[in-house]
TrEMBL record:
Pfam families reported in the protein's UniProt record: SOR_SNZ
Keywords, comma-separated and alphabetical: Pyridoxal phosphate
Family, per entry: Belongs to the PdxS/SNZ family.
Residue ranges of every copy of the PdxS/SNZ N-terminal domain listed in the record: 26-219
Cited PROSITE patterns: PDXS_SNZ_2
Species name: Hevea brasiliensis (Para rubber tree)
PANTHER family given in the database record: PYRIDOXAL 5'-PHOSPHATE SYNTHASE SUBUNIT SNZ1-RELATED, PYRIDOXAL 5'-PHOSPHATE SYNTHASE-LIKE SUBUNIT PDX1.2
Name of the protein: PdxS/SNZ N-terminal domain-containing protein
Length: 294
C-alpha cells in the first residue's frame, strides 16, 4: 500500500483566528447554545415534512439521514429552506470529502456516524480541520476520548446494540461515573489513566477539573417516551436524540410525532418535576384531567 499524504482543505477565516484548542471550545459553545436555544432535543429526519414537525415540536436541531450514504443535497437544501432550526447531516465515518461538501453548502453540524458505515477502514475524520462542529457516537469513555481527540464537539452515547434503552442507560452511567470519579485523582493518577485511555494528560486533567467531558453529551438509542428522555437528563446528559422511527407510527396519539415530540421536549426541560412528567406521559386526549393521575 502506497504511503500517500492527503491534504484536507481547511476553512480559512476560522482556522486563522483560533488555535486548535480554542477552535474546539468554540464548536462546543455553538453546540451548547444550540441546545439551550431550543428544547435540548435533537430529532432524526429524512425529509422537509418531518423537519417541520420536529421544529414545531420544539426540537433544537434536526439530523438528516438517508440510507447508507450522505443524503442527496437537494433534500438537505429543501430542509434548510423549510426550517429555521439548525440542520445536522449524517455522513460515513472517515469520508472527509462528504464533510467538505456539506461545510461548503453551509450545514450547521455534521454527524460522522457508524450507522452509515465506514469509508476509510475505521479511520475517523480529523475534525479539527473543519469549521463546522461534528457529532460522533460512542459506547464507552475510551471511544469518547478518541472522538474528542479528533475534534468532536458532540458525543452521542448509545448502547451496545445502538437502539436499546437499557444499553444506553448503562453506558451513560458508566461514562458519567468514571468522569466524576476523576476529580479525586492526583497528577500521577491522571497520567496513568490517560495512558490506559490512550488520551492526553491535558484532556484527562481537564475532565478531572470539570467533573465531566468537555463536550456536549447526547443520549441516543432507545429514547422513545417523555419518561425515557427525563431519565437521561437525570443521569447527566445535556440532551437526547429521538430516532426517525417516531415518524413511522402516526395512527395513534402515543406515536403521533406532532404530539409526542412536544411532550418529550417538555419532559426534558422539566425532568425534575414529576407532575409535569405525568402530564407529558398522558397518552389520552388533551382534555383529560391529569390531576387524577398523580
Amino acid at each position: 500500500m502506497s504511503d500517500i499524504e492527503i491534504d484536507v482543505p481547511i476553512g480559512d477565516s476560522f482556522s486563522d483566528n483560533y488555535g486548535e484548542e480554542n477552535l474546539l471550545s468554540a464548536k462546543v459553545g455553538f453546540a451548547q447554545l444550540m441546545l439551550l436555544s431550543g428544547g435540548r432535543v435533537i430529532v432524526e429526519v429524512t425529509n422537509a415534512e418531518e423537519a417541520k414537525i420536529a421544529e414545531e415540536g420544539g426540537a433544537a436541531c434536526c439530523v438528516v439521514h438517508q440510507g447508507k450514504r450522505m443524503p442527496d443535497l437537494s433534500i438537505v437544501r429543501k430542509i434548510k429552506q423549510a426550517v429555521s432550526i439548525p440542520v445536522m447531516v449524517r455522513i460515513r465515518v472517515g469520508h472527509f470529502v462528504e464533510a467538505w461538501i456539506l461545510e461548503a453548502i453551509g450545514v450547521d453540524y455534521i454527524d460522522e456516524s457508524e450507522l452509515m458505515g465506514y469509508a476509510a477502514n475505521n479511520n475517523y475524520i480529523s475534525k479539527q480541520y473543519f469549521r463546522v462542529p461534528f457529532g460522533c457516537r460512542c459506547k464507552n469513555l475510551k471511544e469518547a476520548l478518541a472522538r474528542i481527540k479528533e475534534g468532536a464537539a458532540i458525543i452521542w452515547i448509545h448502547g451496545e446494540e445502538g437502539s436499546s434503552l437499557g444499553g444506553t442507560v448503562e453506558n451513560v452511567k458508566s461514562i458519567m461515573q468514571t468522569t466524576s470519579n476523576l476529580k479525586h485523582c492526583n497528577e500521577d493518577e491522571v497520567s496513568t489513566f490517560a495512558k490506559e485511555m490512550d488520551a492526553s494528560d491535558d484532556l484527562v486533567a481537564q475532565i478531572r477539573d470539570m467533573g465531566k467531558l468537555p463536550v456536549v453529551q447526547i443520549a441516543m438509542g432507545g429514547v422513545e417516551t417523555p419518561a425515557d428522555a427525563a431519565l437521561m437528563m437525570h443521569l447527566g446528559c445535556d440532551g437526547v436524540c429521538i430516532r426517525s422511527e417516531i415518524f413511522e407510527f402516526e395512527h395513534a396519539y402515543s406515536w403521533n410525532p406532532s404530539k409526542r415530540l412536544p411532550a418529550i421536549v417538555k419532559a426534558v426541560n422539566h425532568y425534575n418535576n414529576p407532575r409535569v412528567l405525568a402530564e407529558c406521559s398522558n397518552t389520552e386526549e388533551a382534555d383529560d384531567d391529569t390531576d387524577d393521575l398523580v
